[in-house]
Amino acid sequence: MAEDLLSVQDLHTEFERGDGTVYAVNGISFSVAPGETLGIVGESGSGKSVSVLSIMGLLRGNGQVTEGTAKFMGKDLLRLRRRQLEDMRGRDIGMIFQDPMTSLNPTMRIGDQITEVMLSHQYTNRKGAFNRTLQLLEEVGIPEGKARFRSYPHEFSGGMRQRVMIAMAIACEPQLLIADEPTTALDVTVQTQILALLRELQQKRRMSIILITHDFGVATNFCDRIIVMYAGKVMESAPLDGFLRRSAHPYTIGLKRSVIEVGTQSHQLKAIPGMAMALTEPPRACPFAGRCDLAARRCREELPELRAIGGDHYVACHRAEEVLAAGATLDNLMAGGVVSAG
Amino acid sequence: MLGRGTVAATGAPYGAGGPSDAPSEKGSGAGLNGSLPREPLLRVEAVSKRFKVSGRTLRAVERVSFELAAGQTLGLVGESGSGKSTLGRLVLRLLEADEGKVVFQGEDLARLSTNKMRARRRHMQIIFQDPLASLNPRMTVGVAIEDAMSVQNIGGSSAERRRRTEELLARVGLPASAVYAYPFELSGGQQQRVGIARALSVGPQLVVCDEPISSLDVSVQVQIIELLRELRKELGITYIFISHNLAVVQLLSDNVLVMYLGEVVEQASAADIFSRPHHPYTRALLRSVLKVPESAAARTPLAVLPGEMPSPLSPPPGCPYHPRCPLATSRCKEEKPVLRDVSGGHMAACHYAEKVAATPAAVTGLAAST
User: What is this model's ipTM?
Assistant: First the structure.
C-alpha cells in the first residue's frame, strides 16, 4: 500500500444550492497502484465524477471539498496551490471525458491542440511537440497524421475525436489517466476499440487508469479493481475476481443484472427500482435502503460502515454475509427480505 | 382542428373494415418476408433517400423493404451513419423518400395531403435518444403532453386533457406532481418517461423508438425497456426499435434489420439473427457487446471490429463491408452481393453467407486485443 500512486482518504464534497447543501461525496477512500486500472462504477448522481473532479480541483464554483486528503506522488492534491495543480493536470495526470466535443476547441486544428498541451507544460519545444504529435496520432490510431494534424474536430467521427482526446491526455506521459465515461456516447463497436486502445497504451507505459462508468460490463472487462459508489459513499470495493464471484452488496448485484448482454431475455432483466436522489443531509442510514429488496429495519436506521470481508474485499451492507451465503438463491432471500421488512 | 372531435375520440380504432385488426399481444407471428393474407400495419417498399452534400450525393438509405404486422416489433441496428435513423424518419414521413413507398394502414403516405398526413400522425409517433432536446424547455411537462393532444384534437376539454395527462404520467411511472415540472428538473430517465407519455397521449399504433435508452444509466435502461414491453402488451403498440446495440434490439424485437452504409445486410427473425447470423458484420456487432465475465480468469480479450464505416459519400466498390471484413476476397471487392434468401426467409447480403453461418464466431473477424 505504501507505493500507491494516488491515495484518497475520507473525501467529502458539498455543493451549495439555492435551497440548501447537497452532500455529493460523503467520506470515500480509495487508492490506485502504479500500472493499476481502477473502475469507479455508479449511476448518475452517485458522486463518481464529482470525486474525481474534487481531486483535480475542477469543481464548479458552488462545489467545495470539506474534508479529506488526496496524496499523489507524495503531494496532497487538495492542498496544492492552484498554479501547482494546473501544472500537474495534463502533465502528471491526464483526463478524458464522455463528450470529446465539449473538451476540444472547435475553432482550433486538432494538431495544434495536441502540441499546445505539450508547450503549455514545457514538455518539449515547438519542433519536438510537432513531431511528437504526429507520433501520438499514429499511436492512437489516426492514420495519415500529417493530413489529419490540420483537421478540425467537427471533421472527425465521435470515435476519432475520442482518440484525439486520448492523444492530448497522454501527450506529456502522465502517470495517471482519468477516463470519465469515455465510451458512453459511442457505438458498441467503437467502445471496444477505445477500450482496447486505452489498454494498449497503458501496457506500453505502465500508466495507471481510473475509469469512471455506469456500465458494469465496461468496468468488469477493463479494470483490475472496482469500487461501486452510491450517494457519495463506497458500497463495495474489491479486486475484479472477488467482484465477479463474490458480490456482496445488493446494489452491486442490481447493477450486474442490469447489463444487457447478447442472449439476455427480457424476463431475466431486473431493473433496480427508483433512482438515486441528491442528499440534502449527510446519510445517517443506508442510502440504498429505499431501493433495496433486502432492506430491513436496521438498514433504515443505521449507516453501514465499509468493512472487510476477506481478500481485500470491502462492503458497506448490514446483510452482506446473508447475500454471500445466499449466492444463487439470492432472489428467495430478496423475496423474504421484502416480507420481513414489511 | 375544428370539427374533427368525434373522429378523434381517444383510443378508438380507425373505423370498421380498417386494414389492421386490433393487435393481439404477440402479433400474428408473420415473418418479415412471408406473404401475408392481409395487409400488414406497415409496408415499406424499396425506399431510398439521398442527400446532396456540397454537390455530391450521399446515399443515406438504399432500397430498403420490410413489412411489419400490428403488435410486432422490428429492430433496426447498425453503427452511426448506417441509415437506421433516416429510415425511421422516412417511415414516419418526417423525411420524404426519393424512391419507394411507405404504406401505413393500407395508405401510401406520400400521397396523403398535408392535412390528412397530420391526422395520420396520431397513429405514428417517435421517441428520441435525447429526451431533453425533444422537449420544449419552457413548457411544463403537463403543457407539453396536453399540447400534443390538442394538436390532434384529443380529449375534448382542457380539463379532460389534464385528467388524461395525469393518467399517462402515472402509467409511465411518474408522480402526478410531474405535471408542473420543467424538463430540466427531471432526471434523464424521467425525461424519457415524459417523451413516452407524450407519444402515447395521442393513442399511436406505431411508435418509432430511436435509441431511446442509449444516453441513460444502465439501471434506468432496464426500467425503460420494461416499460416499453408492458405498454406493448397492454396497448398492442407496434414498435420500430432503433439501436446501435444488437443485444438491446434483441430484447424487444420479433424481427431485425441489420444496416450498413444505408443498406440492409441481414434481415431475419430476432431468434435467427442471434442463433444463426449469416453476415460477418452481424457477427461483429454481436461480439462487440460486452459480457460480464464469470471470473477474472474467464475474462476474454476485447473483440475489436477494426476501422469505421466508410463515408457514405464515397462508398467502396463491391461489398460495402469488404474493407473491414476479414473474410473478404477479390470477389467481394468487385461484385456487390445482393440481399438474398439464405434459408427459409432469412435474408443476407454476403457472397459467403452460408460459409459465415457455418464458421465458428471467432474466425469471422474480430481482432482480439489483450
Answer: 0.89
